[in-house]
Amino acid sequence: MIDKLSWVAIYPEIVLLVMACIIALVDLSSTSAQRTRTYILTLLTLAAVAVLTGLAANDGKTVYGFGGMVVSDPMGNWLKCFATVALMVTLVYGRPYAADRDMLRGGEMFTISMFALLGMFVMISGSNFLLIYLGLELLTLSSYALVALRRDNAVASEAAMKYFVLGAMASGFLLYGLSMLYGATGSLDTNEVFKIIASGKVNHQVLVFGLVFIVAGLAFKVGAAPFHMWVPDVYQGAPTAVTLLIGAAPELAAFAIIIRLLVEGLLPLAIDWQQMLALLAIASLLVGNLAAIAQTNLKRMLAYSTIAQMGFMLLGLVAGVVNGNTYNAQFAYSASMFYIVTYVLTTLASFGIILLLAREGFESEEITDLAGLNQRSPLYAGVMAIAMFSLAGLPPLVGFYAKLAVLQALIASGQALYIGLAVFAVVMSLIGAFYYLRVVKVMYFDAPVTASTVSAPRDVRTVLSINGLLILVLGIVPGGLMTLCAKAIVATLAN
């Protein structure tokens, strides 16, 4: 069962686990308020893991290990690589903020975020229901601890409690659904479950009953309406550095488990789960875009924006199987993957600016706090404007191309219902553009509230500038990333 290939399939996870334990031990002897040694070691480890996963993804091979429980394929490896880079960027942005708020007393922020990444890796690599669930639990438990990292902050503690209770409910939903499927099919392996369901020997009603709970659990995890109630409170209540940790890299892992469970395991039930995802997408686009208009808190607005963006990502997954044919699947799923990768890139930039503007004793959370940012710092105002325009889906930025790819996948299906969904999504995007443009208007046309200049360490300035530039460049030449996503999805579907 455990052969040489098994170890090949999980070597990035082994490197991450061993180094996380070593860094936790090294940190015990650190007395620096900035935790410089721990920080550098963490970034070096993450860079090494990103290179390992990138090389494995580029290799294009699919390797199964541990009796088919673990899979190392191009889609999984690219998502791991992007998640690792997203965590590196998050730690670069979040360190000055965390240091100012006494969150680096111990090195927990670095070690727990590495364990959260390990959870994401296990989720992405899982080819077995049990393993996917274990990865999810490792990620969510680490996230709860991170939200509560400011021990003396009542708002953060409240956010952690809400997150914990609702997260436990979501885990329960998912576990119940998976146990129903196990009871019906007698297997926990996604490929086996696929074969058993495709044979048509299992009671369809039992499968659909289990499927409802699985989709509800997954909707909780991505923050899709009506299972979105934790997102605004946690985004607003958690320290901003942790909000970015929760809102960026884990979305890539959530996309991976949707593909692993629904596509690799339950594709014969596509007609059932596509309908559920379509309803979730419609609700998310409505709730996210309409509620965001009413927000004055920037983090809360971005939380509702996330809900709307997840609705768009789900739309891509809706159009994969048309009348029992999978001809549209590679376009639809690769459009969704492209969407989620570019969304994470844009989220990093927008929260990076909020973290940059936050000072000791001052949270830059209200939209009015950005007033006159262009006069104080044209560079950062420019990066924020690029991020907002990209989220709104304006050309020539990457968000426009991501939305276009999803809409093309819907229209390519040729179904009147899906074309109707595409029209609805466009209308919702137009409504959404209002609150993104309001942020830009405040930055460029309102008088500054404070005369203080915006200062940031050199590493933060450099990474933020690259982040903004990538959103622009990938919008002008999106072909490379789109091809990468398409090849990764084709390789995954071929297995």
Task: Please describe the topology of this protein.
Layout: H1 4-9, H2 11-27, H3 36-59, E1 63-65, E2 70-72, H4 74-100, H5 108-125, H6 129-147, H7 154-185, H8 190-198, H9 204-222, H10 230-237, H11 240-247, H12 249-265, H13 270-293, H14 298-318, H15 329-357, H16 373-376, H17 378-392, H18 398-412, H19 416-445, H20 458-476, H21 479-494
Helix pairs in contact: 2-3, 2-5, 3-4, 4-5, 4-11, 4-12, 4-15, 4-21, 5-6, 5-12, 6-7, 7-9, 7-10, 8-12, 9-13, 10-11, 10-14, 11-15, 12-15, 13-14, 13-19, 14-15, 14-18, 14-19, 15-17, 15-18, 15-20, 15-21, 17-19, 17-20, 18-19, 18-20
What does this structure look like?
It is a single chain. The protein is mostly helical and 495 residues long. The chain has one domain (4-494). It has 21 helices and two strands. It has helices at 4-9, 11-27, 36-59, 74-100, 108-125, 129-147, 154-185, 190-198, 204-222, 230-237, 240-247, 249-265, 270-293, 298-318, 329-357, 373-376, 378-392, 398-412, 416-445, 458-476, 479-494, and strands at 63-65, 70-72. It has a two-stranded antiparallel ribbon with strand order 1-2. β1 (63-65) and β2 form a beta hairpin. α14 (298-318) runs antiparallel to α15 (329-357), α15 (329-357) packs antiparallel against α20 (458-476) and α15 (329-357) packs across α21. The protein is globular, with a radius of gyration of 22 Å. The two termini are 20 Å apart. 56% of the residues are buried. The model has no long low-confidence stretch (mean pLDDT 88).
